[in-house]
Design brief:
Elements: H1 4-13, E1 18-19, E2 22-23, H2 25-53, H3 59-111, H4 128-159, H5 166-196, E3 198-199, E4 205-206, H6 208-228, H7 242-259, H8 281-297, H9 301-307, H10 313-318, H11 338-360, H12 367-395, E5 405-411, E6 417-421, E7 425-429, E8 433-434, E9 439-441, E10 445-450, E11 455-460, E12 466-471, E13 479-483, E14 493-499, E15 506-507, E16 523-525, E17 528-535, E18 540-547, E19 552-557, E20 570-575, H13 586-609, H14 616-640, H15 646-669, H16 676-687, H17 691-702, H18 707-719
Parallel strand pairs: 5-12, 14-19
Antiparallel strand pairs: 1-2, 3-4, 5-8, 5-9, 6-7, 6-10, 10-11, 12-13, 14-16, 15-17, 17-18, 19-20
Bound molecules: ligand LTUEHXSF.
The ligand N[C@@H](Cc1ccccc1)C(=O)N[C@@H](Cc1ccccc1)C(=O)O binds near residues 181, 184, 596 and 600.
Organism: Phoxinus phoxinus
Membrane topology: Multi-pass membrane protein
Pfam families: PTR2
Length: about 725
Amino acid sequence: MTDEKMDETKKKTKKTAECCGFPVSIFFIVVNEFCERFSYYGMRAVLVLYFRYFLLWDDDLATSIYHAFVALCYLTPIMGAIIADSWLGKFKTIIYLSVVYAVGQVVMAVSTIHDITDTDRDGTPNNFTLHIALSMLGLILIALGTGGIKPCVAAFGGDQFQEHQSRQLNTFFSVFYLCINGGSLLSTLITPVLRAQECGIHTQQQCYPLAFGVPAALMVVSLVVFISGSGMYVKTDPEGNIIWAVCKCIGFAIKNRFRHRSSAHPKREHWMDWANEKYDKLLIAQVKMVLKVLFLYIPLPMFWTLFDQKGSRWTLQATTMSGDFRAFILQPDQMQTVNPILILTMVPIMDRIIFPLIKKCGLDFSPLKRMTVGMLFAAMAFVCAALVQIEIDKTLPDFPSSSESQLKVVNMFNSSLNVTISHKDTLLIDSLESSAGYVTLDHQEITVSLNSSGITKNFSLIAGGRQTLIIPSDPSVMYLKEDIKSKPREGRNAVRFVNGWTAVLNITNLESNLEPTVISNYSLVAQGTRKFVLSNGAQSCEFSQTFGFGSSYTFLIPSTLFSTDCKSIKAVEDIQPNSVHMALQIPQYFLITTGEVLFSVTGLQFSYSQAPKNMKSVLQAGWLCTNAVGNIIVLIVAELGKLPKQWAEYLLFASLLVAVSVIFSVMAYFYTYIDPAEVEAQIRSELGFEPEEEKKKETLEMEDKDKDQQNEQEVKQTKI
Ligand SMILES: N[C@@H](Cc1ccccc1)C(=O)N[C@@H](Cc1ccccc1)C(=O)O
């Protein structure tokens, strides 16, 4: 961006088509951004559930890999900026990296097709290594693509405007932000619905291929739209790598300072002044401005650490809640749509009502103050998340600890039974009933006595497990069956049947026929009213059951099944449905989005306004890097600081952010706002440079070919 005059000349010579005062080419860029953000946020919305329930990773691993991916997405903008500025230019960089991005999305979608390795056709992949390898390759390509084009697209949009269109340029950036949130809103609504469908060749499973396939298709559309506008764009040539020039200047100052560390050399006002021997005053002053802002960035990653957990921890939290809003059912991953909805409404409200009102009241709400308040809002959001978690924990079953075992007894015998466990606990259980709940035992070897019949049997329970003791019509063959000991996945419901009828039964939803006296394996059913048909070939009957979210039931089939037309089937609730409503997450979403508007939108504007004209890209990349570091912090905390309770982890994050916001407010207090253009003009006049000459010098420095040799010579000369 140092050769602005050249760009301006190019812009002026290229006549661009206009519509309502805007360059027509902008339309292609805005639609391209809409599709790209749809693709990115759509894929991200279902990613953590894919890790958790397709690759069967635990919560911590799923969260860690999710954040590692987001971190990579915000580290790659540096690479994109370097490629665009020093080699390919923005246009070609966007095209090439979009191809990489689209390929990544396709690879990711392919990795989610369970049928490709489901050789035994049981509905689960048989070669997890292949699925993991493909999805990791896909994610790396996506991160290279999305991060690489991120600093280029908005800047390329800005390049399309001519000098007389500065008002339209401002509108463009607002529309651009709305497009980001419009695209992400649609995709976070749609992809979870696609994911919740059932699809497959051999077995019907959650439709991850569709949920990842649609974002892949949108990325291809994004690329096609961008290429279609090709003939209309103002394309500027690579301008020289400013990031590299800044690094070289800083590196030289440090090296030179180190060489002159003895007390014989007088101190300089600022350590960057040690670059004076090689770099001109203007570049050094610009680097100083950038460093001042970068220093302020140090505490910022903590905000992103909390902000980006919306997509991981908060989505997992929603899976333990009820999404029944009566008029519609909300999937856990769809809760994230609350963020773009609030952004679309809050940005105009803040800009037009709240900020002007604060100004009217005579209060100074400077950008850095807004950012501090934004951090405090995010911290409050996590306090809310902790409170919601405490409510959820109250409704969760008491699962056994690793040294305990839990036992439930089901009586399929034709009369009531007195069941004594280890000569201690006696349970009176009616026919076709179960014990009231699970009995928790601190030992595993047990004796079960059926008092009326005199039958006694020894069993060995699973430590840390939940089991059901089935007493069939012939009690002497009573047996144990292992139960689930966590909430069923994705808010679904686990159901199983005990066949008390006299012959084999075929039951819809079950994989195979059910032998008499046997208990089936679990099958998962979605929320809503589900119909089950039971048949033995000759006769059949059906019954319906309404399910909520995250429950588990054992259905007891009596010997009188067909004579009572399925009405005598008993439902035993093993795990109660989620009862805390997802609407309780809305306050935390509201607070974090208010935080985002105050922090992220203001931070972006601040980074722009405080950066010298030719170094806006440096600060853009720096700003996105704070997001990357934030995600790395989540990784570290999730891996190292495993807290026993989720609510405690939320409170830990909230307190860390409050502490960081205090540090940030102190740093902000000492920051003086500058007008980079004014500072630059002052230095130019001090140097007595004509702007043109000065710019040429700067460009020369950046394209400096014999950097190190020259550097050495100059240092030697200074010494002499
Ligand atoms: N509000 C977000 C979009 C979003 C949508 C759905 C779920 C979560 C987030 C937004 O506007 N993002 C912008 C700005 C941004 C935010 C964080 C890190 C980098 C950039 C975007 O460009 O994606």
